[in-house]
Design goal:
Rossmann fold; 5-stranded parallel β-sheet; OB fold (Dihydrolipoamide Acetyltransferase, E2P); about 240 residues; alpha/beta
Length: about 240
Amino acid sequence: MQTYKALVIDDESASRKNTVSMLKQYCPEIEVIGEADSGLSGKKSIQELQPHVIFLDIQMPGMNGFQMLEGIYKREFKVIFVTAYGDHGIAAVKAGATDYLLKPIIISELQQAVNKVVAHYSQMPEKPTDQEPHTIVINHSKGFTLVEFSDIIWLEANDNYTTLYLKSGKKIVASKTLKEFESILPSRDFFRVHRSSLINFACVKEFSTHDGGEVVLENGTRVQVSKARTQDFAAFISERAVRPK
């Protein structure tokens, strides 16, 4: 039997243990690989464990379930909300949830939710093992936008937000830090030239070591290279330089 990895995120220990117990007893298709007791630890566990599905509480201190999902842009898992409150159904649908379960969990409803997860993955074509992602999902209040890596000229940090400058001339403001984007975008193509700037090397037209360092991008933007990064950036360029035979 094909099994699917699950993560249970709930700040209440008893509720978390009950969900895990019911999954193990009544849903053999699900393998619980971890638990988290907050939105923050849940987000970290998702990145580390890469589950197929998460069973997510909504009302949690610090960061609720909806807020946690808003901070995840590369969502390759299904979401089943498990909550004691019945007034979040519409918000759950908008958040892209596969299902919405009320506590105390009813066995038949849990099994129906799991069946939806199984059906989703059963219908997905297998990906080649060497296939790499080439798009990033930018969530916003009205849904999300898919952006090709190659369409990004550069990214600029602004506290906990990042502005993406695209080849179309469009700007997108995302509620994600530049560090998070740096961890997602391929390091062979993108380089952080400054604590507030991440550039697409394919869009670099000129580079000067004047006043520490500066790159000119294809849209005419000039981006400062910090003195601490100048040497590393020069090495980065050298690795990609085409030399005559």
